[in-house]
Design a protein that fits this description.
7-stranded antiparallel beta sheet, single chain, binds zinc ion, alpha+beta, binds nicotinamide-adenine-dinucleotide, OB fold (Dihydrolipoamide Acetyltransferase, E2P), about 750 residues, D-amino Acid Aminotransferase, Chain A, domain 1, Helix Hairpins, 5-stranded mixed beta sheet
């Protein structure tokens, strides 16, 4: 029965701090019951979960009777529901205009009530069932942000209502430590906070990273303040209680929605988890007139964010093949609504990840989609695993071309060995070549590349430049038409003039990203030089193979101790061997002779001359990338493609004479904010600094420009206020390439 199921989940959640289902699923059950009860009001009983808050205390703790009940909040999940709430409020108050609300973050922890008598903390209690809570005074005393004494002139009685929560950083640290000890980890900061606070041994609570925010009042005596919720918060602050500085006064539904969206964008940046925002009528007299229903006040509502996690089932696993042949396992899921969209696939990244999470086909899993991040499987619920759940195995053959799948020892990825014989790799490399940051050929995206490959019009990247001879065939294709074919051919023609760095990046050499491609273009100036390069052109060897710092020091010390040693002539290797210098034999001995040729040179060598190390001539190109580049250009088919590209007139401008790059942006200050798609923050910072710019963390009048990625927050609004130019990611690229002067 529905009520019993809800009660069971309440018990798991509120008493055991160990829920079995996601909040979204629980909310759906509760709504189902609410809908039923509103259709058949005669079924409502006072003990129905819709009429009650939380659950009775667990026992083990003393009981506290709340003098002012601790209620829950009504929920809304979208704009329509919010408007309905606002309309109800105005109708009840008989008001026409916009209502002023206080908008607050809805912290995801657990509610507590702190009782101060003449400024001293005398009791702390959980919400319990709203009427009777658990006495957690000793535990609450261990939380640093809960003052034991109030500041200023405290009233005779002050009950403070607020949320005990666990900041995200503390949660992650605590879970990492638990994982290292092989102990159970908490599924989210809320359960961690509840589980940590409701410990019978306060010493355990003391060791947990808990914090507190105050947001309201219970019983008070002798407190005189303005009849405004804002004044309540101000007073709480004045008594030394922590109050969130994200709280704002807003006007009407539009103000509420603006606040909701703005904080929603910054949700991931906040130091704590929030599951939504709360709007409260600011005027306390109005609050009083609005009053309460059974389990919640009528003057406030929680506007919840779409759940970032949801529960679903793994129906199967497919392996996708990327342009480098990497096989990515992708779980096919029973469609589920999470993070605001319906998700039916989630990446499993690679086989190590599959093993680490122990995902099997048939498993019930928690899917997570935070912000615009690709959905992923957060964890498996092993207790719900069916007996016939199937292990996920790496296929022996590529699902696209049937070539053998190889997995390099020690590497997480498995690859199809088919190379350009593999259609998936061919399509992938064509899409990459034409992509915006590579050769930027508009009209050659995922779909059209796929279509052209399927019709045999494209084979490799050089075949793009033969398309103009196939105009008739192109026009005959579905979704093509004269106009779009002409546009495509124009775009292809234009792409012949892209700078060398872009062409190098477009070729898709393993390990060569945009930044490395730029370095390579600057170093080699033309493609033929890069094609002919050897590993030694990238990497300079110094010292003698096999000699590390210790051996080197040993050699230097030996000659310091024997300054008079001379080599009378003859076999140098034999003479060295006869000296029996520690570690100097075999490869090291041969290497010394080869590198230095004379005994005097070896005697004179310092540690730095002896130690074997490598220096990169091109920044960002280490041995592995160097080998990748050389291997790439050693392949006949790749050389042939390059030749055909050249014949077709793809003649990238040699890197423009770099305007003393190191000082290109000297004297300028940039601020980075939001998420860039092509760079990490650190990469963007390094690239700017390499050009002489300063990168600062805060916006001021001295800021040259703010570079804003997706979901930029307060720094962007500050820049707009100060009238400081704002660049997007394309602007940043132009700036780095010296094409723009902001
Ligand atoms: N997964 C499960 O099995 C399960 C079971 C029961 C409940 N739940 C979840 O618990 C939630 C319901 O719990 P609830 O009754 O505590 O309601 P709620 O969490 O939706 O809202 C009320 C609570 O919000 C908190 N809050 C945070 N910031 C606040 C602020 N600024 N002002 C006022 N209050 C603030 C308070 O603790 C208050 O008690 C739902 O999200 C539900 O999905 C899940
Ligand atoms: Zn393949």
């Amino acid at each position: 029965m529905l009520r019993e199921r809800i009660e069971h989940h309440n018990y798991r959640y509120y008493v055991l701090d160990d829920p079995e289902v996601s909040d979204a699923e629980y909310d759906a059950l509760l709504r189902e019951l609410q809908t039923l009860e509103s259709a058949y009001p005669e079924l409502i009983t006072p003990d129905s979960p819709t009429q009650r808050v939380g659950a009775k205390p667990a026992g083990g703790f003393g009981e506290v009777r709340h003098r002012v009940p601790m209620l829950s909040l009504e929920n809304c999940f979208d704009e329509t529901e919010l408007r309905a709430f606002d309309r109800r409020v105005r109708e009840r108050l008989g008001l026409g205009g916009e209502i002023e609300y206080m908008a607050e973050p809805k912290l995801d922890g657990l509610a507590v009530s702190l009782r101060y008598l003449s400024g001293r903390l005398v009791q702390a209690a959980t919400r319990g069932d709203g009427v009777i809570g658990e006495d957690i005074t000793l535990n609450a005393r261990t939380i640093a942000s809960i003052p034991l004494r109030l500041r200023g002139e405290a009233p005779a009685v002050l009950e403070v209502r607020g949320e005990v929560y666990m900041p995200r950083s503390g949660f992650e640290k605590m879970n990492a430590a638990a994982r290292a000890r092989g102990e159970k980890v908490f599924v989210n900061p809320r359960n961690a906070a509840a589980g940590s606070l409701r410990q019978l041994d306060p010493q355990i609570t003391a060791a947990r990273p808990l914090a507190f925010y105050a947001y309201g009042l219970g019983e008070t005596e002798g407190l005189s303040i303005a009849r405004r919720h804002a004044a309540v918060l101000e007073a709480l602050r004045g008594f030394g209680l922590p109050v969130s500085d994200e709280i704002r006064r807003v006007k009407g539904v539009e103000g509420c929605l603006d606040y909701y969206r703005a904080i929603g964008r910054r949700r991931a940046e906040l130091a704590f988890d929030i599951d939504g925002v709360v709007y409260k009528v600011d005027d306390l007299d109005w609050q009083q007139r609005l009053g309460f229903v059974a389990r919640a006040p009528r003057f406030a509502i929680a506007h919840k964010f779409p759940a970032e996690e949801a529960q679903t089932r793994v129906l199967g696993v497919e392996f996708q093949v990327g342009r480098t042949g990497a096989l990515t396992p992708v779980a096919r899921l029973e469609p589920v609504f999470v993070g605001g969209v319906t998700v039916s696939n989630a990446t499993l990244h690679n086989m190590d990840e599959v093993a680490r999470k122990d995902v099997r086909v048939g498993d019930t899993v928690i899917v997570r989609r935070a912000g615009d991040v690709i959905p992923e499987i957060a964890r498996v619920l092993p207790e719900m695993r069916p007996a016939d759940a199937a292990l996920i195995a790496l296929p022996a053959a590529c699902p696209v071309c049937g070539s053998e799948v190889v997995r390099v020892e020690g590497e997480a990825v498995a690859r199809c060995s088919g190379g350009l014989f593999c259609e998936a790799q061919r399509k992938g490399s064509l899409i990459h070549f034409a992509s915006r940051r590579a050769m930027d050929i508009e009209g050659l995206g995922d779909k059209s590349v796929s279509q052209l490959v399927d019709h045999g019009l494209l084979t490799d990247v050089a075949s793009i430049y033969a398309l103009h001879d196939k105009r008739d065939q192109l026009v005959a294709l579905e979704r093509m038409g004269e106009k779009s074919v002409d546009n495509l051919l124009d775009a292809i023609e234009t792409s012949k003039q892209r700078p060398l760095a872009r062409l190098i990046f477009a070729l898709g050499i393993p390990g060569v990203g945009e930044e490395t491609a730029r370095e390579l273009a600057a170093h080699f100036s033309e493609l033929t030089a890069l094609v002919r390069a050897q590993v030694t052109d990238f990497i300079e060897r110094r010292g003698v193979p096999g000699i590390g710092p210790k051996t080197a020091q040993g050699i230097v010390d030996f000659f310091l101790a024997h300054p008079a040693l001379e080599h009378g002539g003859g076999d140098l290797a034999g003479f060295l061997r006869s000296l029996a210098i520690p570690k100097v034999k075999g490869r090291v001995l041969d290497g010394l002779v080869e590198a230095f040729a004379s005994f005097d040179a070896i005697k004179a060598a310092g540690v730095a001359d002896l130690v074997n190390d490598e220096r990169a001539n091109v920044s960002g190109v280490g041995r592995i990338t160097a080998e990748n580049i050389v291997t790439f250009f050693a392949q006949d088919h790749n050389r042939e493609v390059i030749e055909r590209l050249e014949q077709a007139g793809v003649s990238p401008a040699a890197a423009p004479a770099e305007p003393a790059r190191a000082s290109m942006l000297a004297g300028r200050t940039y601020v980075l904010t939001g998420t860039l798609s092509g760079f990490t923050r650190d990469e963007a910072k390094a690239a700017l600094e390499a050009r002489g710019a300063r990168v600062s963390g805060s916006v001021s009048a001295k800021t040259t420009a703010v570079i804003a990625g997706a979901d930029a927050g307060s720094k962007l609004s500050k820049a707009e206020k100060l009238g400081i130019p704002v660049l997007d990611e394309a602007g940043l690229r132009a700036l780095l390439e010296g094409e723009e002067t902001t």
